[in-house]
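Hey forum,

I'm writing up a methods section and want to include a predicted complex as supplementary material. The small molecule is zinc ion. I've pasted the protein sequence and the SMILES. Can someone with a working setup run it? I'll credit the forum in the acknowledgements.
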Amino acid sequence: MEDNSNKPKGLFKSSLGSFSRNFIDKYKFFKLKKIIRYSYNNSPFYHRLFNDNNLKPSDIKSFSDITKIPYTNSEDLQNNPNSFFSVSENKFVNVLTTAGSTGKPKKAYFTKEDTDKIAQSIAQGGRLLYGINQNDVIRFTFEVGYGTEIWGTRYYFDKAYGEIIGALMLSTGRLSVEEELAIIKEYNPNIFGDVTSRVSYLTSEMKKICDLHSLGIEKIFIGAEPTPNALRKSIENAWNADAVIGYGINEVGPLIAGECEKKCGMHFNEISYFLEVVDPDTGELLEDGEVGEFIYTTLDRMGMPLIRYNSHDLGRIITKNCLCGLPLKRIEIKGRTDDLVPIGAGDNLFTRIFDDILFSIPEVVDYQVKFDRKNGMDQISIIAESQKINKTIQGEIIAKILKISKIDNGINVSKTIAKPIVKLVEPNSLERDSIKMKRVIDNRGLYG
Ligand SMILES: [Zn+2]
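Reply by user p_vandermeer:
Happy to help. Structure tokens for the complex are below, copy them as they are.
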């Protein structure tokens, strides 16, 4: 599909491919020890944390010793981000904020050196994974705003792909469907990107007024929220383009993993971030392949380093080497530990299961699921935006929900769940804020 013949992909791949696993692990551990020592000496938060736990940086002698250090939690970043500052405050040039569940945003501050390093690593990833070069014209519409839940990626993409690689970046905030189409027609970008729900929305709206195959988009960047394969496929088919998923967490790094062209797991940036997968209950380190909670340590950040930050993301490291040849390990995200909702007789559901069900139906564009309590039973109601409204689609959704054993048992065995209600509505009927829609609403007040 894409002519990669003049792109420097092979060069970068072979230079990184020559590093052995052993070398990468040694290099990572060297950087890990260095950032732990640096944080102890410069970050008031970590100096106190180490002292309170009778720890010294020299106590970290092996990878597994890292579990001696307690987690850093999002509340620590919400309550007192300044206590993490490891340089004087006037050295910061960028701050990314993410809305937290308690309302106070989590904040991450970056120095010029930090932003340069992040941009360099994103540029390196762009060349390696996607062959981004100076001939590319790129239209991203990622929002950058205060306290939004979105990753602050646009700033870094502009630096990485624009200033460093030399691609033409067409960056604005989000525009109307008509304005978006006008920009694409005028500048002919070959790469397009935003969070998955926004790309999905634009795809379904633009399809109505234009033949998307004629626009010349070759690659679409999506991510920042669960992206079921069915949804990816429908976006790819609509544009006749490859859609690849990227992943970032504002407070850790705006882009820390991305899919290669094989699209089977995201290569993790092991050079800039240290990842542990731990058992959420016991805190024990898990083997590659096992699903657990992701704990991150930033290896390059000097302004505000984070050691053992608990992201509450659940996932696993994929054990097999990727067919693309890159030695960087791949990760798979399964959900978040705080995305579990209790349902019926003491069971817990990953809310992501509704993504898999609803987005496996091609007509469904978006949806909202609500949990209510009625007559002592949990009532699940789903409103799905669908391009066609008929009993077949409605029945298909109900049938798929009833196949979830926890729900089926709750209805038929423990009688703690009522039969789900499914309603189909026209696309764009559901209320959205400017960024993305809240897909799960729990009205049960289970926690007071
Ligand atoms: Zn790969």
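Some notes you might quote in the supplement: The two ends are 55 Å apart (CA to CA). The mean pLDDT is 87.
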